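Quick illustration for those who missed Monday's session on complexes.
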Amino acid sequence: MPNDQVVVITGASRGMGAAAATWLAGVGVKVALLARSEHALTQLTASIEAAGGAALPLVVDVADGSACLEAAAKVRHHFNRIDALINNAGVLEPLAPVSAVDTGAWRRNIEVNLIGPVAMTRAVLPDLKKQQGRVINVSSGAAVRPIKAWSAYCAAKAALNHFTRVLAAEEPRVTAVAVRPGVVDTQMQAVIRRQGPGMMAADMVAYFTQLKADDKLIPAHLPARSLAWLALHAPAALSGEFVEHTDPQIFQPALDYFGDNFKPLLSTDF
Ligand SMILES: NC(=O)c1ccc[n+]([C@@H]2O[C@H](COP(=O)([O-])OP(=O)(O)OC[C@H]3O[C@@H](n4cnc5c(N)ncnc54)[C@H](OP(=O)(O)O)[C@@H]3O)[C@@H](O)[C@H]2O)c1
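Prediction with NAP bound:
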């Protein structure tokens, strides 16, 4: 299916980022895949190309501002345009109460979850303005709900939401939306089950562990479909908003557009 659009996706080596790339490539969108895991990016690129799509793998640590600028230049050079950015790369750690947390680890979390999206947005903003494009920031319920032992993550996601609002106010030609994906069956949940006990409140660890045991975590391809749809079609009226991936303005049109038949291209897809 021909589609001229180009979407840059950070954190595309697994989980929701890889799934969003898979949905987009499936409708002919050209995707730039950014993360640190070269092998997974190469594998996903090969699978997309084997299915007739176009992908550009770029090994980037989003905390590195100059690497973000270089990546944007490579995408521009390779595909000639950039229509949307999905700021999806994220880390949960450190898991520790404020009284005990390592401030270096705290800073690193902010660099990945907040400075990374800012740097990537800045790097592609001229292209997005030209195309009247979109920035989709993958946020979290932790942005609005305090979770003990997650202070860096909560603060980063809260700031990401407000960054989204300011970006929307500053850039009328760009639609910027922050999305809450729910509790999703990815490696980030495995981090909670592995590192949470003894650090997080016991009831929260039990809650997340039970969701996994009951097979109630959301499969990554569902919120990823909402992210992919927003990257192509986010309504201007949503600019600056923090929305649920299940919002009827998003979930149903995403289902109508992409369908329900997700075929994972990576062995690490959940
Ligand atoms: N899973 C949930 O329940 C949940 C809930 C709410 C929000 N979220 C958000 O959803 C987004 C995607 O997470 P996920 O659940 O799909 O987790 P995941 O499977 O752990 O994926 C995280 C992705 O981010 C990439 N990444 C991490 N640090 C990076 C860095 N410094 N530079 C570039 N890429 C980096 C990882 O790739 P590399 O390791 O290869 O770099 C990976 O592709 C995150 O923003 C997360 O905060 C998740």
